[in-house]
Specification:
The structure holds two protein chains of two kinds. Chain A is of the alpha/beta class. Chain A contains seven helices and nine strands. Chain A has a nine-stranded mixed beta sheet with strand order 7-6-5-8-4-1-2-3-9, sandwiched between helices. In chain A, 33% of the residues are buried. In chain B, α1 runs parallel beside α2 and α8 runs antiparallel to α9. Classes of the chains: A alpha/beta, B alpha+beta. At the A-B interface, α5 of A face β7 of B. Bound molecules: flavin-adenine dinucleotide (FAD). The site of flavin-adenine dinucleotide has 38 residues of chain B, from α1, β3, β12, β16 and β20.
Chain lengths: 269, 439
Amino acid sequence: MTITVCIKWVLPNRDGDERFAGISLADQAAVETGLSVAEALNDTCTVVTVGPPAAEASLRDALACGAHDVVRIDGSADTDSAETARLLAEHCVHSRFIVCGDYSADRGSGSVPALIAARLERGQALGLIDVRIVGESLSVVRRLDGGRREKLSIVGPAVISVEGSVARLRRASLRATLAAGEAHINVITNDGSGALRRNPETVPPRPYRPRARVVPSPSGSSALDRVRQITDTSSSKGHGETVVLSPEDAASRILESLRAWGYLADSAT
Amino acid sequence: MMTSPTQHDADIIVVGAGPAGSCAAIAAARAGKSVILIERGPFPGSKNMYGGVVYPRILDELVPSWWETMPVQRWVVKRSTMLLSDSGALNIDFRANSWGAPPYNGATAYRPDFDNWLANHAVEAGARLVCSTTVTGLLRDSNGRIQGVSTDRPDGDLHAPIVIACDGVNSFLAKQSGLYPHTDASNFTLGVKETLALPKHVIDERFGVRDNLGVDIEILGGTSGVNGGGFIYTNLDTIALGVVLKLPKLAAQQKRPEQIIAELKRHPAIAPLIEGAEVKEYSAHVIPEAGLDMMPTMVADGMLVAGDAAAMCLAAGIWLEGVNFAMASGMYAGQAAAEAIAKNDVSSRGLSGYTDRLEKSFVLRDHRKLRKVPHLVLSDRVQHKYPAFVAGVVERVFRVDNPHPKPGVRRIVREERKKAGIGLLDLLRDGWTGMRGFG
Ligand SMILES: Cc1cc2nc3c(=O)[nH]c(=O)nc-3n(C[C@H](O)[C@H](O)[C@H](O)COP(=O)(O)OP(=O)(O)OC[C@H]3O[C@@H](n4cnc5c(N)ncnc54)[C@H](O)[C@@H]3O)c2cc1C
């Protein structure tokens, strides 16, 4: 069994200029985690991406850092999450640990690792902020809502996703960088049966465009009070709400709120 | 000095993928030599700045029909020299529409685009480009001979019989190898630039150009009393506006460069050109200004120095050309290095084809011819007295002062010369130096 790291190569907004393309800090942390785990468990580490030929630059970086193998599954840079997970899952079947970044450089929702876990029926621990290798298993810390933390011990096979702060990607050696520049990259293309398709039930992805929050004018008597009112993070003014609902009602409520906050187009269901 | 190919990672290591480095790599790789081109930035050009105009004629030799693929902002068809006094300006314009068609003359281009494009040619020629890697020193054998370079990467030593230093102004490689006898701050100027965004049609209207045609304006005066000059170049939808300031004067006057740019932008002759523009970028870089007087020894056993690393930028008043000098010297270094490898002699004698080529080409010939010009242009008289003198003369020549009759030009010149505090002998001497310098 091997360790598989899944990364997403992203073109930036600047006219899709490939010079500024790359992977997120979380994906970099995933590569480092995958490499460290493979070293500790005496396994091999494979780095996989779904993307166009230009994505091979990031795979070469991973090779230079020490990945044993890299695979590019041919696909467009904006393949949707479900399809990306399907393609990746096919290549992760024999992996002991599948390591992903918690978010991609285009601010994805981090759903791909969950979808991979679902497809492969594996355990999952997502949004990790600390990963330690203890014997044959991983001791991890997961971020929960409300500032809480969850400590888990994971024995593979499992899917994990890590935040960018978990690890800093090592600097590749010069020789490995030169060799990676000329290395062969395995490319897997769709044979037609797995043609990309969009699930009609999913919400169409939109660029990340968080709404500006309307802040009422401050009303303190002194300038300091007014500045405090706007900037103080200790006063609670979030719109968080705890409700107890059935799963169906909860889903509708979440969609309703997302729509109200502007994250979903009005027509999206 | 023979090479021992078995221990080497490449025939030639080129440090720096600026215009000099990429041209060195293209020339050497085309000659069949194995080349590693090392760049500290994440991609070639990512760390580089300049005013904005390249004169790529020399590329005819390396990239035929370069104009078909080069990432150009605008083709320069209009060159102006602007003499600024406190509130006046004398503008001398030249326009050549033929420069707007093949084979062209000069173009404005962004360095991250231009340098990246040129480096891609090196890669196509077979050079191996390694980015995000900083060369930290020279490797020498027990006899002190240069054997390669060390870098900031783990396992980062690379061995090659020849290193070409194209690491730009203040080259620490050239210094480390002892090729620079001394560094004197008075040989350098500080170039600072703002990139100002304006809609394309506004730039077209204000500068009298259209389509992808553009303007190059060199400015004398307008630098708030600090010796130096300025420039304005048009890109498609931005304007590059900058000043070049003599370092010791800048330090002595305790002025901030951004303050000097701000004052230049307020000058009545400049303000209407940039009104409403949004500052997109502010950058600064040192320029080797003293030309021939500061050039290091350019050849050592196993090493060549090219481009700004060898102080080859030509900064002589109406000319601010560094990229073409860098490209040419890089190309000659690459050719000479390949020749030396073929002869199996990488000693300074084996590499002397480099200096031969420089001597025969425009690179050293222009520098020799214009040797005195940088000093003249940056001298206190030219900087502080002549712009006001010339502007005063022209203002009076064109002023209509009826009912008084027009005064004779000779009288105006004499009076304005005295007003500006310029002695007749000094004027004649500077005129003579200028005539000889500009040839
Ligand atoms: C304000 C200003 C305006 C100018 N305007 C013009 C103009 O309009 N037209 C013109 O022709 N010239 C102009 N010049 C001059 C021109 O920019 C230079 O002459 C030219 O860039 C020199 O090219 P080069 O390749 O020698 O050096 P550079 O362009 O400086 O390239 C050096 C390269 O080496 C890399 N490097 C440096 N050290 C290391 C290291 N240790 N390891 C690895 N890589 C390293 C750098 O990242 C860089 O890519 C201007 C300069 C300035 C500062």
